[in-house]
């Protein structure tokens, strides 16, 4: 074979390792020489080299070489040399730690340490790796090095030295502060973020002493942040984010730090007085008795769980009460006859194993077999199938924090609510809407989580202080709702709903952000409920005003309609294994709170109200023109865009009973049963109460018990009833057992009415279809039921709503029948057709009357908004304001949106009749009544002899202005009806 024909064979992995080895062999000697030149210890004192600053700059240059190296070769060499632990930390302590805060070496150390501890987002790193080139890349060593780095930086004096570096930069006046000063503060704040990102190791008693220390680093970190005044600095930045440009630049960084600090602790655990310790000193002062409420409660919970597990194990453990033991013979299918076609296969045929369905004898040695079913005992002997682990929560985690760290977080949370919540939230929301470059996708998720966390903390503290009777606000009394007023503003709620819609429309769907939005809405509903129940406990607050504001906010949420869809979509979209258990818990929690609120609202509203509903946009059925036949191109495009928007959103009547019928859904039932199946893992009674309440609404209120007539459901109920003695002895568990028994009674009633309910036809394949088997249910045996999706109504006690009938309408001869525009026209086209019909009958008198009504209502509500919210428009440039006319100023104010206080002052407008002709037309003119309905006017009492119309307070100014503009436009330029009369396009309802 010639030399050119030689084929070299090598694996990609070996090539990768060879490249890494070569790169490390080149860089490591040079880096080690620089590290050695930094300095070293003489006894217990660290001596810096003469060129220490130059060495630090060289190390930073070497570090930048990792920007294009997925293997992080330089980072691995730095870890091997232990440069951070043995050199950088001592240099930092020797310089900034001893007062030399402006030393270049200290600043260079802080810069290099920040780079070395930069977070490694493992998920993102793995996405960027090439499947072939980077096959051998391993990040385990790098993640381990970060734990050691964090432990080294938490040594006494290190974090204080870093804080000392920032102090001169913060103390300078704005005019004296240079860009370098801002960069130094930025570096140290990023270092704090880096350390907060590093996760502790899980606590394990089998670890070594060094490893155990790595499971409590976060507690040490939070305690040191509190002692070194970092937490106060973070509060200062958050509270001044709207006024200071420098602080505003760090609001996203502070948001991330808060997210990393608070994601490991539940708000309810910080409501308790962490530092409430009773010290009873003895006469000699040597001993002290320490009583910690939280520790005692945790210990009690753990002992209860352990006792419950022991009782469950003892219930099925073998016993030795019988001297000779227990032997039970069980025969499967005793009446099963052998298949004669398989009986004779010749003398040489091999012996076939017995069929599973043939008669077999089994021996049991458990005494439970004397009283229980043999099938249940056989199931105990089977090897349990290993289930796939489920994600607990993708947003937060449970950190094992010490009492000192929890106390620090509690004080931070209280101070943040009292001084920084509203300005911090406003600054972030403004930056997000302005699409600033510093905003990332993850910042939206963090903002949702942090807002939810502090809202839950606010409500828990307020509830606790209200019950105890002690005050937390500076004026005394519980916290006022004004401290979290930013979350009830229209802009915040619209943004949350917009993020949720975007998360569900993404591919793949962003379930984590959807979960954060659900949790945020849940706390918002809880806040509204607390406002409704408020009794002026906080200083400076009026209970009646709070109640009215809560009613207004509740009405706006219901009218918007998106939160109603979000509650149903959260339950319908859950798939076991796709979303986390926290997603499931959040969906159940939101649905429970929303249904309670809607039930109370329904009792006060009675007949219901109109809500916005998104509809699929329809295609244009034909091109539109004008009477003149000419129109500016830009105006046409604008009209087309406006028409598209009109097609997307429409209004529909909403009632609580109708919403309950939507809630009676098979997918929702499956989600509730999945949640119920984890009832043994519930940590609070509220979880059981919520799921039982939702099931009760389906079964009893919506009369949809047929949704639960399925094999898996009945099997779950059977397991719960068989083990009901192990359930907690609370009211929620009793209600669950009662509800299950009710469902079973309804099931057997259905069986008694129609025995074919029990039949299941098994036809797994075409070959087995002719041999379908019919399995009947005997009392106590396993129940079979086919998939009943769409069939539950005929199996339930549900009855369709009795309609009054269309034939009854003509009998009421008081008024002519109402009319409507035929299908296929948009809202603006319908208005144009009705205006044309009224013009043909009575030239413009009634149309002008409607326009006058709209003008009066718009001016009246505009005046209320201006008096409440101040100046109509605050433009950043006076020249811009001068260029705007009055209509443009009004549109800009309407786009901004009125405040909740202004909306609370707006009342329903009752349309007055100044003549008998107007009263008769409003009662008997079908075209005028249709025009009223199209501009969002409603009738007070349908049974009155003279109809009274009103414009509800919840109708937005933009909607009224749009109706007025469309009427005026089509009065001047009528719609081209293609030769037809307007009356021909109307039909009776």
UniProtKB/TrEMBL annotation:
Keyword match Iron: no
Keywords assigned by UniProt, alphabetized: Cell cycle, DNA replication inhibitor, Nucleus
Keyword set includes RNA-binding: no
One matching Pfam family: TIMELESS
GO CC annotations on file: replication fork protection complex
An annotated Gene Ontology molecular function: DNA binding
Compositional bias ranges of the Basic and acidic residues kind: 336-347, 799-815
Localization terms from the record: Nucleus
Acidic residues bias spans: 631-641
Major subcellular site: nucleus
Domain Timeless N-terminal: 45-330
Region (Disordered): 1-20, 327-356, 608-644, 796-815
InterPro entries: Timeless, Timeless_N
Bias kind Basic residues: ranges: 608-624
Biological processes per GO annotation: DNA repair; DNA replication checkpoint signaling; replication fork arrest
Descriptive protein name: Timeless N-terminal domain-containing protein
Organism: Hericium alpestre
